[in-house]
Specification:
Blueprint lengths: L13 H12 L3 H14 L1 H11 L1 H17 L6 H22 L4 H12 L2 H5 L6 H24 L7 H10 L19 H25 L2 E2 L2 E2 H7 L17 H13 L3 H11 L13 H23 L2 H14 L3 H8 L4 H14 L6 H10 L3 H10 L8 H13 L3 H17 L6 H14 L12 H11 L4 H4 L8
Antiparallel strand pairs: 1-2
């Protein structure tokens, strides 16, 4: 009977390794084949490893499964498990470079991007993240090298590499990918590098305000904590595919194929198992909501697939459809990011007209401000001053956007609208945030010369104190109001 426990010891001494190499080299191809087959039959782990090393597709699928497994695990990471996770990430990056890149550079790039996308879910699970951050930075540094290999191989001929690099750099909540700019020369020519620098400067200017606001502390309270304490629900992923028994399975298969870089097969599967975007959605308990969610999810899948193919024109079509189905500032910016200067100007002119027809005043005002129609946005908000309402995050973003673009009166309308339900309904757990909204309105008051038909800030706050004088818990959190 074979003693399998003695097997690993054979690799512990160099002399034994040399002896094994000499013996293997003396075997014929047929003998080697029989030996490998016997090892695979006797040990399942060895069989799996042989399959991994001899079939590129198996390597791709194995790496993709491991990445998805990490993403699906939501357990908190201790100090030791964080170190273990960092080693797992390093091992995955090494496997991509060693086992996938030589045979299939496009799939290697797709796996690298899937690995990079683990930054947020991992860093939210650990308090000792230095090792994980370092591993993720190394993975980001791998992206330009893989992209260069794809480009030199002639793969993805439709890919706009400058645009793709901008997208990868923009999706960086923890600032782990900044080093990729210094490696842009591996992927881009001189003209593309200059255009990248120009576009990054423009993008940075537009995002500067958001980054600054993310670091603001209101009375020692983090900006993010405001949203948490207001019980704002987290953004939930939308459902995909038609409503039938195969929906979850079909969606998972498509996402898995995209993770593996099998875009052509993913699109073929999409056409066979997912109802067309233009097809009417089946009736549900809430047809309008379900229809919108399904269509958005299908468009997300198509956007991702065409992005991996580098087919920018089709991505633009998909994003136009996404905006048409649900106009929003995010959808507009998502579409604008893919356009050249002439197309961007044409889109802005189109949105300026369409924004007036959007029934939601918050969304309409955001798009008006974004496309240079600030005075009209302010007029719209003034008209809705007594009834303005909406999702808290969007309202806060609108107030900041209006102030940033020089419309303090419009911002004041929004801050007052955010405060109104807190005091009217007596939401005591949100009083401290209501106090912050009031503080913002007070801060903007000196910049407003004409309140139009609205009461001045002094009149507004005096009326608040009169109508809500019994809410002492709220007023105790407004110390500045006494000055």
């Amino acid at each position: 009977m074979t003693n399998h426990k003695q097997g690993p010891r054979m690799n512990t001494r160099p002399s034994q390794q040399l002896s094994l190499a000499a013996r293997l080299s003396s075997l014929s191809h047929e003998q080697l084949r029989l030996l490998v087959e016997r090892l695979a039959q006797e040990n399942e782990a060895v069989a799996q490893r042989i399959d991994y090393l001899t079939r590129p597709t198996s390597a791709v699928q194995d790496i993709a499964r491991r990445i998805r497994s990490i993403r699906a695990d939501d357990r908190s990471l201790t100090r030791d498990s964080s170190r273990h996770m960092a080693r797992l990430l390093e091992g995955l990056a090494e496997d991509i470079t060693r086992d996938v890149l030589p045979h299939e550079p496009i799939r290697a790039l797709a796996l690298c991007e899937a690995l990079m996308s683990l930054d947020e879910p991992l860093l939210e699970r650990t308090h000792d993240d230095s090792g994980i951050q370092s591993a993720l930075e190394d993975i980001a540094a791998l992206w330009p090298k893989l992209a260069r290999a794809v480009r030199l191989s002639g793969g993805l001929p439709l890919m706009d590499w400058e645009c793709r690099l901008r997208e990868v750099l923009a999706d960086d909540p923890y600032a782990l990918r900044s080093g990729m700019v210094q490696s842009a020369h591996l992927v881009l020519g001189e003209t593309e590098q200059q255009r990248l620098r120009d576009n990054l400067a423009r993008d940075a200017a537009r995002r500067a305000h958001d980054r600054e606001q993310a670091q603001i502390r209101w009375h020692g309270v983090g900006f993010r904590d405001v949203f948490i304490d207001l019980n704002v629900p987290p953004h939930r992923p939308l459902r995909s595919g038609p409503v039938n028994e195969a929906e979850p399975e079909a969606t998972e298969v498509i996402e898995f194929l995209l993770d593996c870089g099998d875009v052509a097969e993913a699109l073929e599967f999409f056409g066979a198992h997912i109802a067309p975007v233009s097809a009417p959605a089946p009736q549900t308990l809430n047809p309008a909501e379900d229809d919108s969610a399904l269509r958005h999810a299908r468009l997300d899948l198509l956007d991702r697939a065409y992005g991996q193919l580098g087919d920018t024109p089709r991505r633009i079509e998909v994003r136009r459809e996404r905006y048409r189905l649900s106009p929003s500032l995010a959808a507009y910016r998502h579409l604008e990011a893919l356009l050249d200067d002439r197309s961007r100007e044409a889109l802005q002119a189109e949105i300026r007209i369409q924004a007036c027809q959007i029934p939601d005043p918050v969304t309409a005002a955001q798009l008006m401000l974004e496309t240079g129609r600030g005075p009209l946005a302010q007029l719209l908000l003034l008209n809705y001053a007594k009834a303005l309402a909406g999702e808290t995050l969007h309202m806060i973003a609108l107030a900041e956007q209006a102030e940033q673009q020089g419309y303090p009166l419009a911002a004041t309308v929004v801050w007052r609208a955010l405060l109104r339900p807190i005091l009217k309904e007596g939401i005591s757990k949100s009083y401290r945030y209501g106090a912050l909204y009031l503080a913002h309105a007070r801060r903007l008051a000196p910049a407003i010369d004409d309140y139009k038909d609205l009461p001045t800030h002094e009149e507004y706050e005096a009326d608040l104190r009169d109508r809500h004088r019994l809410k002492s818990t709220f007023w105790r959190q407004c110390p500045i109001a006494e000055a």
